[in-house]
Amino acid sequence: MFIGSGVPTVTVDALTSDDFLLDVREIDEWQAGHAEGALHIPMSDFVARYGELTEKAPEGGRINVICRSGGRSAQVTAYLVQQGLDAANVEGGMQVWAAAGRPVVDAGGAPGTVI
């Protein structure tokens, strides 16, 4: 599936707990609430920390990129696709994730909120 910008997208409902998730929101957003098991690399640090992603992403697997509502993650997804990686923007971001009843945890592992 593609959105108007031509960036591959995936819906929250299509993701399973085994899918790799990259959260590109800023630290305060991450600490308030994120998907358990996601890798956190803020968009503002992304290029400098790109090596962390290549170390932790599953080889040959899709990288599902998420932010609050889908804008920042679409930009990072476009970058990853340009690098030749299999990446998809999570449609609607963490707002849709939480609205769908998916678990959200804070920095301490307790139930979190999307800000």
UniProtKB/TrEMBL annotation:
Domain named Rhodanese is located at: 15-106
Instruction: List all membrane-crossing ranges.
Output: none
- The domain of life is Bacteria
Mind telling me which Gene3D superfamilies this protein's record contains? Rhodanese-like domain (3.40.250.10)
List the InterPro entries: GlpE_sulfurtransferase, Rhodanese-like_dom, Rhodanese-like_dom_sf
Q: Which CDD domains match?
A: RHOD (cd00158)
**Protein name per the record:** Rhodanese-like domain-containing protein
